[in-house]
Amino acid sequence: MSERDPDEFSARKWPDWSFWGTGQGDRSRVAVVAVLGLAALFLIPRGAEIVDGRYDAPRAVAALGFLVCYGFGCLLVPWYGPTAPRRRRIAVVAVMVVLGAAPALLLGEPGYLTDLTYATAIALMLLPLRYSLPLGFATAVGQIAWMWLGQGRVNWGEVVTLVGVTAALGTVFALTFTIGHLRVAREQVRRLAVSQERERVARDLHDILGHSLSTMTVKLGLARRILESSGDTDPALAEIRELETLARQALSDVRATVSDYRTVSLATEIAGARVALRAAGVRAELPTAADDVRPELRGVFGYVVREAVTNVLRHSDAERCSVRLGRDWVEITDDGTVPAGTIAGHGLTGLAERLAAVSGTLDHGAAPGGGFRVLARGPEPHVPSTGAGPT
Fold first, then answer.
1. H-type alpha helices, 51-155
2. Per-residue H/E/C for 1-63
3. 252: number of CA atoms within 13 Å, CB side?
4. Which PANTHER family does the record cross-reference, listed alphabetically (predicted)?
5. Computed from CA positions of residues 236, 240, 243, 245, in that sequence, does the dihedral angle turn out positive or negative?
6. How far is it, in rounded angstroms, from Cα 93 to Cα 99?
7. For residues 146 and 96, what is the distance between their CA atoms, to the nearest angstrom?
């Protein structure tokens, strides 16, 4: 038997009013107390009926005292009760039932049990339904039985008032409860959206600046070596011009990333990888075109090529780097040394997240013949691919 979803409704579940600790929750708390307070104003005619002289003074005073305490409880309990521990909630409901039933028991008036509507509504608010519903049912049945046995007839108006007002107050509490949780959920969604946007910008900036700065560093080193070894300015100036172009492109990419307008082209990334690897003196084995790759995967595969080549430039002593493409996969391998205990950094972690967003997977680690290997796969296509995938 599967476990119950924690968010699924259950009659055994205790109402969670923890959202009342927030600013929006305080408004809900005031609204609930105001509704129950207005409803409890109907206790005033009951008090006037008790003191009209039909009952002896001691019983009337005691009943009136219980009624006054009951009225104050109708204001205080909805304010403090929902945030109380479970045992205290049970005790509070029990006290409210005693206070509400005491005038009827003292004066022998079954009709006064109608006032228990407020205690029953509070029970619906504080207790699981498996406790509060039987309490309300028992109250109605008890009033009917008392009237029938004690008076020989049932005042159905009193019974209908008991059930109807209890149902109305319970509905108000349920709506308040639902609206409060929806507000909390909406706030959580807003926070998650902000967090995801920050992660997106951070991931894109890492991918953009990491590759661009690595390539620029290699080209700066090449220009410096040319000037130190031969003093020939023409090749050095060519590298510096390319550096200027890379810097402008990186700045444009950063601006586009922040504005969420940037798109990545697999063909462009392969061309950029060719330039960066050549500048670093790494022999590149790259595909001449990316037309065979499924269109929906070209963007994310562009990120894979960019990050993998950046890692070759940063962390590897490789002399050769190979990029292979299939319809729904891309593989980047090099012959560099893989340090023991190498773990995935932010770049590879970001790639895994990008691929997961398109139902793809990322594998990386030591290649079978030595070096490092990064393999990205897209989801299984609906039409079987005719090309063989990497082994």
1. 57-80, 86-107, 117-126, 129-151
2. CCCCCCCCCCCCCCCCCHHHHCHHHHHHHHHHHHHHHHHHCCHHHHHHHHCCCCCCHHHHHHH
3. 8
4. NITRATE/NITRITE SENSOR PROTEIN NARX-RELATED, SENSOR HISTIDINE KINASE DESK
5. negative
6. 10
7. 20
Asked if 273 and 305 touch (Cβ cutoff 8 Å), the reply is yes
Which residues pair with residue 321 across a beta bridge? 284, 334
**For the chain, which domains are there?**
18-190 (no CATH), 264-391 (3.30.565.10)
- How many alpha carbons lie under 13 Å from residue 230 in its C-beta half-sphere? 8
Measured distance CA(114)–CA(136) in Å, rounded: 11
Residue located via tokens 């005691």: 62
Give the C-alpha separation, 139 to 145, whole Å: 10
Element (H, E) at 362: strand 361-366
Give pLDDT tens digits along the chain (391 positions).
Answer: 444 444 455 677 888 787 776 655 567 777 777 888 888 888 888 888 888 867 888 888 999 999 999 989 888 888 888 888 889 999 999 999 999 899 989 888 888 888 888 888 888 888 888 888 888 889 888 889 988 888 788 888 888 888 888 888 888 877 877 777 777 777 777 787 767 767 766 776 666 666 677 777 777 787 888 777 876 777 778 778 877 777 777 776 676 666 555 567 788 888 888 888 887 788 889 988 888 888 888 888 988 988 888 888 876 678 889 999 988 999 999 988 776 555 556 678 878 888 888 888 999 888 887 888 999 998 876 544 445 566 6
| Amino acid (one-letter) located at 264 | V
Q: What is the pTM of this model?
A: 0.53
